[in-house]
Design a protein that fits this description.
Layout: H1 10-21, E1 25-28, E2 41-43, H2 44-61, E3 68-72, H3 77-88, E4 92-95, H4 102-112, E5 114-119, H5 122-128, E6 140-143, E7 155-157, H6 158-167, H7 169-181, E8 188-193, E9 203-207, H8 208-225, E10 234-237, H9 244-257, E11 260-263, H10 270-277, E12 281-284, H11 286-301, H12 304-321, H13 343-361, E13 369-372, H14 379-387, E14 392-398, E15 403-407, E16 425-429, E17 434-439, E18 445-446, H15 450-456, E19 463-471, E20 477-482, E21 487-488, E22 494-495, H16 497-502, E23 510-516, E24 523-529, H17 531-540, E25 551-555, E26 558-563, H18 566-569, H19 572-586, E27 595-600, H20 620-626, H21 628-633
Parallel strand pairs: 1-11, 3-4, 3-5, 4-8, 5-6, 6-7, 10-11, 10-12, 12-13, 13-14, 24-27
Antiparallel strand pairs: 1-2, 8-9, 9-18, 14-15, 16-17, 17-19, 19-20, 21-22, 23-24, 25-26
Helix pairs in contact: 1-2, 1-9, 2-3, 2-6, 2-7, 12-13, 12-14
Length: about 625
Amino acid sequence: MYQHEENLTMSRAFARSVERYGDRVAQRFNPDLYYGDNGGQFTWNEMQQRVEDIACGLLSLGLEKGERVAIMAPNSPYWTHSDIAVINCGAVLVTIYPTLSLNEVSYIVNDSECRYLIVGNEDILNRVLPGREVMPTLEKIIILDLQYKTDDPGIMNLTQLMELGRQNRASKYPLYQERWQNISLDDWATILYTSGTTGQGKGVIITHWCFASRVDGVFYYFLNSGHPLNEEDTVLSFLPLSHIFDRGCSQWLAIWMGATIAYADSPATMMADLQKYNPTWFSCVPRLYERIYMAFQQMLEASPMKKRLFTWALGVGEEVLSYRMDQFGRYDMRPEYPLCLPLGLRIKYKIADKLFAKVRELFGSRFRFSFSASAGIAPDLLKFFYTVGVPVIEGYGSTETTSACTYNPMSACKPGSIGPQANGSECRVAEDGELEVRGAGTFIGYLNKPEETKEAFTEDGWFKTGDLVVKDIDGYYRIVDRKKAIICLATGKNVAPYKIESLFATAVEVDQVFMIGDERNYITALIVPNFLHFIEVFDRNGIAYDKSKIKYMEAGGAQLCAEVGEDFINQPLLKEQIEAVVKQVNSQLEGFETIKKYTILPNRFTEEAGELTPTLKTKKRVILDKYADTIQAMY
């Protein structure tokens, strides 16, 4: 049974799990994606061997304590091996989103002075190679491909790096042991660059103490909240490990606990991977929960009988859910919670729950809960998942807080809230409503940016998150919006775009929405329809449209419709349905918040066009500039 130890460095946390769980499975993955490597799994002992081979290889190349190694790769077991190996060498891992442009990559490599760059595949390598001359500190590129071949002396594959480590093990292993055993909690572990919605990203310096204090806090908070983690758990990793969310709440939390990490083939295969690996938890963002919900709704639309039956079941489930609610509107979502239902309702729920079980099966046979963070999730969407018995638990954190500093306990989940202070953090609300945080996980500063670091903290040492919040009577926090995102109308009224945008979350007709109104008299919006939904609707109803104008794109491994023709968005049915959604949203807003005019766009906002960050947040300045004429026409 798992026994927690406090104040471990990341290196000692890994060593402890190897010692305790050596022959248990540490990693599971699809071997077909990795040349059949090890049959698709590594035990903790096997994982340790890989880490040591990589580390000794890096030491053979000359990696010194405190130096920086960058990684630009999709999730894989090798990503985790590299993470641990670099950190165990006493070096610092710099994470780079695999979708970033060469300009952004060169900025990060140069700002952090990386000597080595680890890339995930040949595609990323080919995007990086043209920029080697503008990255003077970069000495070697390592590709996480066991069989990649090249004559370029500046590139080596993972097999070659590990073989170098094995050849020099006799001389480098003692140095490796000395390095990881002498790491202190104050040593730098990693640098993660913020996505920069309003400007250039900043390198957030995270120490071993940041991770250790956060995991210590998580362990006790989860234990007291009724859903402890241990070595019997499995987590599915599919969000980018280059971001703190999955790296902290999935990978490193699993390493600390001795749990198994399963790697999705790609974000697009998540639902199939849930069936294949049967995880007990995973980390996810609201957009993916919305897609699961929308796909389910579209499936029901195809069968009126199923829709009527499930609508009845949801009504029963919502009534049952009310029996889990306390006086503060919080739901106890623990499976062992004793539901005391009247006989009639109990009988109806027994029937309804057989339908809900079909939904729960989508998440695998061992699923217990999932995290939701990175952006707010609509309360109605959470209630849907709670009604069918899927505990999606919302928290809040940032790169600077090493993930979640507030969190809804499973014993008291409050839709629309990010929870109370949690996981070892302390929170308070400044006079202007900004959330301020200190304690576990708090970063030590921005790399090479002393002025920005000073500005990020109050005089008494609290980190200023930049998010405006309201604190409820029960100590739970609700996000209002990003401080910089608040729209200031010419009338003097302030509008939170997040409040409006969240009301579109469960509308299957709308994919993306962007609010405008700064220094204007009223709110307007740019609306991107759910093109795939309308393609299906048009085809089903025999509505003609110019199919030659339809353009698709890959995003996170999934195929999306990126662009349609003007005739498509001018179809009366589409315009009527979008109008109905806007009317429904407006009915829930104050008069000054309502959308007075909107424009339907024939294309999605994309990361490739510079309109989204790697975490899918809209870049306000870019969109305002790009659509300036369209916006002006609404005023």
